[in-house]
Structure formats: C-alpha cells, structure tokens
Structure to design on (441 residues):
C-alpha cells in the first residue's frame, strides 16, 4: 500500500543527485523506518551505561521504544519497552534500575531482566484454562531479534535475518578498535550522561554532514577565526608562546582552508559506512601526551604503540545511525523521530588506564565542538534546519552530490576518493547508494 503511494521510489536516487521528497515525504520516512532502521544493526549504547544487574537504559530503534537492560547473569538484553498484558510502557524513565525484576505499573505483571514472564497476580485463579501463562511467549516482553556486543558497544537488530554485526560493520569496525586500542587497558568507559539535541531536520541531513569536509572552513569559519584571535593573544602573553591545545580544536576550523581539507581522504564501504582520514595535530609533544605515551609503551611495547597512535582517522560514519570520532573518544547516535525531527545523543568516553589529562582533552573537544552549547554545533544546526526548510519548498526538486564525481577509485566494492579530492561528495553518494539498496527491500 505504501509502495503504491510512492510509485517512483527508484527514480528518487541517481548516482549524483537525490529528489527532495526523500527528505520531506512522511510516507518515505515510514518506509525508511521499516526497511532500514528497524532492520539493520542499530547502536543501543555502551555496556558501561548499565553496570549493575537490573540497570536499564531506554532508547529508540526506528519507531520502537526499547530498553537495554543488564541481567543478573551479566548479559545485556534489548527488549521492547512494552508490557504484553495491555501494552503499558514498562519503564517511563530514561534510565534506572528495575530491581530484581520488571514490574508493570498498571496491573503488576512481573518479568525477568531478559523479558520472560515471572508472575501475574493470582495467575492460577485468573487465567486457569486460558492461553495466558508462562508457557505462552506472547506473555513475555518481546526481545530484539538479535543483540551483539563489540568491545562494549551494544547493537541490536529488529530483524531475525541479515549479516552478523561484524559483517555489517566490515572495515568500519575500526571506529571501535581505534577508540579502545588507545586505552592502556584496552577498553573505554562511558561518561554519563549524554547531551541530547533534537534537530528540526531529516536524519539524513545530519549524517551527510558528518564526512562533509567541504563545509568546516565555510560554516565554522567565524568560530574558528574568533578562537584563532584568542589563541594568538594567549600565545603572545605566555612564556612558551603557546595557547592550550583546546584553542587549536576550534582555531583549526579557520586555519584549515578548503584546499587543505582536500588533502584528506574518504574511504567508502558497503552498507553506506565511510571513514574520513587525517587529523589535526593529535600527536602533540606536551608533557601530558608524553606521560600517556609512556604508559602505552609500557603496556603495548614501542611497535604496537606506534601502530595504535598512528591510526589516521578523523571520523567514521556507521550508516544509518552512528558517527564516531575515535581519536577523541566521541560518538553521536542518530535517532530519527519524524520526517523533520531527529534526536542525536552525544556521548564521550574515558580511556581506561589513561591519565586524567588525556580525559580532559576529550572532554574539551566534547564541550567545544560537539556539545549543544558550542558555536560549532550551533553553526551546523542552523544549516540543518535551513536545509530542511529549503527542501520543503518548491524552489527545486533535487539535492546534488556531484563534487569530484567520476574521480573516485573503486575496487572490490570500496570507493576511495582520488588524491587531493578530500572534499568529494563521495560519502553522500555512498550513503544514498546504500539507502536505495535498502529501500528496494
Ligand atoms: S498493562 Fe502491564 S500489567 Fe497490565
Ligand atoms: Fe560542522
């Protein structure tokens, strides 16, 4: 039925352009939720968000309210946040501890942490001879069809069939390896809690911006310039002639011009995932970094240490719902709420075993670049809203992704941008290619 309403879905996506309805049509949005978000592996959260038995965290997968919950056996379960009795939402809070079991607030049906029915008040007298009871799976809370955990990062898929998480992530798995390997103890710990931002724009607009190397030196130029002025001023007034590294995180937006962004490269993988290589000065020689390096060398040896800190990544996009900046331990989860409303959860992590100063650096980036309070995020949010407004108008039918078209280098399903084409729109073309494949069903 939905398909009849959208007869020309295939015609919506061409290799270098996309129809505007893809961003604005509520019927297409519904189909996306069904064919993409409620099917593929979606990031639920990090297992350190729920350290104790009974801890839960509420999240959204597509249109489905879900719960990530830690069982007494230590296992992480992902359940629909719904009571099988009359449909009451099991947990109204975003997070908490359920105690030894879930207890529905409406008529006190209780459930184990893995969703299995535990008891119904006066079950025998109330339900003798009926189909309701512990043997009926419909009386338990429904579980996500598949749940997998990679190095502490928990994903769920609401479809029973499909690639495993590792197959799905493919080479983009580097996002989690790069983040965890940088920890002397080999793992990260989430910093509670996240920033939550609701953007008044379609979810794809956010994702397309993540590896858009063309925009930073334009969109964030004014913020970068202001930071650069302050940075220069501080440098002048200090003995060593240097400002704190955090100023550089912002000033780089002005000092890195478009031609310099072209020096980076994007690598575009199957399923719409992409990596943007290159990073701005992440191996400084300040005392904090040197102290960290020493701990890492003790743990891993010089050779492995060089391999770990030599991983050259700015950003990894895991389509359709995750943007990871592994060298700075940042992650943004994208949760579509409607055709023109998108929630992002902005998280950051601690490297276990690393000195506090290294965490402070991650926190500085979190606050200065990714938080809702920073001008960088505000610059982007305004663009997202304006894009959605423009796309809702009759001012044109197409969104163009033609930059450096035809210069990509393709081998074994992986598309690399050619040298000096870092600002290519290849990542957007790659995302829309995956989108079209998913939407074909
Ligand atoms: S709706 Fe949950 S026990 Fe009745
Ligand atoms: Fe930006």
């Amino acid at each position: 039925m939905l398909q009849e309403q959208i007869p020309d879905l295939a015609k919506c996506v061409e290799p270098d352009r996309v129809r505007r309805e893809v961003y604005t049509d509520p019927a297409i949005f519904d189909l996306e939720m069904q064919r993409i978000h409620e099917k593929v592996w979606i990031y639920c959260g990090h297992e350190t968000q729920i350290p104790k038995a009974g801890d839960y965290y509420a999240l959204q997968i597509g249109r489905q309210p879900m719960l990530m919950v830690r069982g007494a056996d230590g296992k992480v379960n992902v359940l629909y946040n719904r009571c099988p009795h009359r449909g009451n939402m099991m947990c109204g809070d975003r997070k908490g501890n359920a105690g030894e079991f879930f207890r529905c607030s409406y008529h006190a049906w209780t459930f184990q942490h893995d969703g299995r029915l535990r008891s119904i008040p006066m079950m025998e007298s109330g339900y003798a001879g009926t189909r309701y009871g512990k043997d009926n799976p419909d009386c338990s809370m429904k579980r996500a069809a598949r749940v997998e955990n990679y190095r502490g990062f928990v994903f769920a898929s609401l479809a029973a069939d499909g690639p495993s998480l590792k197959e799905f992530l493919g080479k983009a798995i580097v996002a989690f390896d790069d983040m965890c390997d940088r920890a002397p103890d080999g793992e990260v710990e989430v910093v509670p809690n996240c920033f939550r931002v609701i953007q008044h724009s379609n979810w794809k607009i956010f994702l397309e911006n993540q590896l858009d190397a063309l925009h930073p030196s334009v969109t964030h130029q004014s913020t970068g310039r202001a930071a650069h002025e302050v940075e220069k001023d501080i440098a002048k007034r200090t003995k060593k002639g240097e400002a704190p590294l955090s100023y550089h995180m912002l000033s780089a937006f002005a000092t890195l011009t478009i031609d310099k962004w072209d020096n980076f490269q994007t690598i575009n993988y199957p399923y719409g995932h992409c990596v943007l290589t290159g990073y701005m000065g992440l191996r400084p020689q300040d005392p904090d970094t040197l102290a960290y390096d020493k701990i890492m060398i003790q743990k891993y040896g010089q050779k492995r240490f060089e391999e770990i800190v030599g991983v050259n990544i700015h950003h990894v996009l895991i389509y359709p719902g995750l943007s990871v900046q592994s060298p700075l331990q940042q992650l943004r989860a994208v949760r579509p709420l409607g055709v023109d409303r998108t929630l992002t959860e902005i998280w950051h992590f601690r490297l276990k075993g690393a000195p506090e100063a290294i965490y402070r650096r991650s926190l500085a980036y979190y606050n200065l670049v990714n938080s809702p309070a920073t001008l960088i995020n505000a610059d982007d949010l305004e663009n997202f809203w304006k894009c959605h407004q423009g796309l809702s108008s009759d001012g044109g039918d197409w969104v163009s992704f033609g930059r450096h078209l035809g210069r990509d280098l393709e081998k074994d399903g992986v598309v690399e941008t050619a040298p000096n084409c870092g600002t290519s729109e290849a990542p957007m073309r790659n995302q829309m290619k995956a989108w079209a494949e998913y939407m074909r069903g």
In short: The chain has a mean pLDDT of 94. Residues 83, 85-86, 88, 104, 106-109 surround FE2/S2 (inorganic) cluster (ligand 1) (CB under 6 Å). The domain at 42-150 is CATH 2.102.10.10 (Rieske Iron-sulfur Protein).
